[in-house]
Known about the structure:
Blueprint: H1 2-11, H2 16-35, H3 38-41, E1 44-50, E2 53-58, H4 61-80, E3 87-92, H5 110-122, H6 128-140
Amino acid sequence: MAHQLKSLLSGNQELRPLLTKAHELKILQDHFIGVAPPYLAQSSQVLSLQLGTLNIAVANATMAAKLRQLAPELATLLQGRGCEISGIRVKVQVSYNRSQPKPAPRILGKMAQNAINELSQSLPGDSTLKLALEKMIKQKD
Length: 141
């Protein structure tokens, strides 16, 4: 799908500048990720480069404040990588939220299942804990 889109954009003279701009932004994003602290890089997105000012979106004001504090240093590091940047402007975009990968469900091993089963058998009557453990065992089967 991505290859087809790239072929479509590069094949059309009117759309080719869009592909070029997207490629430039991708390169700037990669450079930014390379110089920014990881916790800032993963919650930031390069928006544009206009007249030497790199515009970056972040999800909240806390990240924006930290990024603004580091902006002069990051601009210098980006200049060292060959980017034509004179400054960084930070914009808070609350709607911007990088998708977080969903954690894979954990699967209990046989040893853990047996231990939970033994524990549930040793509990008296129909206690809440015993019922919860039995339910957990049934879900894994």
